[in-house]
Design goal:
alpha+beta; globular; 6-stranded mixed beta sheet; 10 strands; 37% helix
């Protein structure tokens, strides 16, 4: 682990390159939100899909906290985070970049055969290929390959070697492929027996929507045991909403998106959902 002084100074240098930076806590994950920002108490948009109105001085809200402002990077709140930080990350999309995270030798070999050469950064198990141009992020686009750009962060592992190339259509096409099928909850008893003409109470924003918001937040803030957290969260959602018919494909997709943003593959999400349904007898 680098010292606070080293990390902060590297962060300042990376920010001067135009890349918004943020500290990573133990486990190389963003710091969890402070007490005032937890569970969207500060009014930020749920699940950090966009930077919300919150302007917390701490490095809250994951990738949305990334900044190039040296005054923020060296502020007392951020200095306290640097003292506990394990690594440095940046927001590729905020710098107009896309990172192709190649996690093993097979993924690197595939990229060398199918994609144009570009700026390359060595990682522990593979390589990061950087392209000029932003796009939506997506995990598991191929075995061992994730795309990190908008609404995502990538570890800073050095400047890399080679000249950066423009984002090719071949990379955009990877994210455009259809994801693994999302298995929705059973659509039964949309209108509860004996309550014809009335919508189920779970359709009210105060119940169903808030429940999904809280489930997304729980997954997003998980710092360890991601698999178990995703399964337990799916189980809780299905326990509350799985039998009334309120859950839609859109609700399930929100949960799967939050889980995949934490590194879960589409298959892991589908398996966790199926296991939770089986546990509840749905």
């Amino acid at each position: 682990m680098e010292s606070t002084f080293d990390l902060m100074n590297v962060a300042l240098a990376v920010a001067q390159r135009g890349r918004p930076v943020l500290p990573l806590a133990v486990g190389k994950l963003p710091f969890g939100n402070c007490g005032a920002c937890q569970k969207s108490r500060c009014g930020d948009r749920p699940n950090m899909l966009k930077p919300g109105p919150c302007r917390c001085p701490r490095p809250c809200h994951g990738w949305a906290a990334a900044t190039t402002d040296p005054r923020v990077i060296t502020s007392p709140h951020w200095a306290a985070a640097w003292r506990r930080a394990e690594a440095l990350a940046y927001h590729p999309g905020g710098a107009g970049l896309t990172v192709l995270d190649l996690d093993n030798a097979d993924a690197v070999a595939w990229a060398r055969e199918h994609l144009p050469a570009t700026l390359t950064v060595a990682t522990t198990r593979g390589e990061h290929w950087l392209y000029r141009g932003a796009m939506r992020s997506r995990n598991s686009v191929r075995p061992g390959i994730d795309i990190k750009s908008t609404m995502a962060y990538a570890r800073w592992l050095g400047p890399g070697i080679g000249a950066i190339a423009a984002l090719p259509d071949a990379v955009r096409a990877l994210a455009a492929k259809e994801p693994a099928p999302v298995r929705p909850a059973a659509q039964v008893n949309v209108v509860p027996p004996g309550a014809a003409g009335r919508q189920c109470r779970h359709r009210t924003p105060a119940y169903l929507d808030r429940g999904i918001d809280m489930a997304e937040q729980r997954i997003t803030e998980a710092r360890e045991a991601i698999h178990n957290t995703v399964y337990r969260t799916f189980l809780a959602v299905l326990s509350a909403h799985g039998r009334c018919g309120c859950l839609t494909d859109a609700h399930v997709a929100r949960l799967f998106t939050a889980a995949q943003a934490k590194g879960e593959s589409p298959r892991h999400c589908t398996d966790a959902w199926a296991n939770a349904r089986s546990k509840l007898g749905l």
